[in-house]
């Protein structure tokens, strides 16, 4: 029940037995909604596809 709400808040629970290291982040799948998730902080997993692009406008100007 609560898992759904957590997922809506983009707080997912990874499948602990299926966590992988992709060379940069821990990635897995949400055990509730089964979407790809990655660890953005300790005990904080977010949707993997919703990657926030870095604001690196240093190259301009
Ligand atoms: Zn989820």
Short structural description:
With 61 residues, the protein is an alpha+beta fold. The protein is 11% helix and 26% strand.
Would you write up a description of this structure?
There is one protein chain. With 61 residues, the chain is α+β, with helices and mostly antiparallel strands. It has one domain. The chain contains 1 helix and 4 strands; from the N terminus they run αββββ. A hairpin with a 6-residue loop joins strand 2 and strand 3. The longest helix has 7 residues. The site of zinc ion has 5 residues, from loops.
Highlighted features:
four-stranded antiparallel sheet; 61 residues; globular; 1 helix; binds zinc ion
Rounded radius of gyration (Å): 14 Å
Please mark out the parts with pLDDT under 50 across 5 or more consecutive residues, or reply none. Answer: none
Give the proportion of residues in helices: 10-25%
Strand content: 25-35%
* Count of spatially separate domains: 1
How many DSSP E strands?
4
Q: How is the quaternary structure best described?
A: single chain
Bound molecules: zinc ion
Main sheet overview: 4 strands, antiparallel
Number of helices: 1
**End-to-end distance:** 51 Å
Overall average pLDDT: 84
Which overall shape is indicated by the principal axes computed on the Cα atoms? globular
């Amino acid at each position: 029940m609560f898992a759904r709400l957590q997922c809506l808040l983009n707080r997912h629970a990874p499948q602990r037995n299926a966590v992988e290291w992709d060379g940069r982040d821990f990635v897995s799948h949400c055990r509730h909604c089964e979407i790809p998730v990655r660890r953005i902080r300790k005990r904080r997993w977010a949707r993997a596809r919703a990657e926030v692009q870095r604001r690196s406008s240093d190259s301009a100007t």
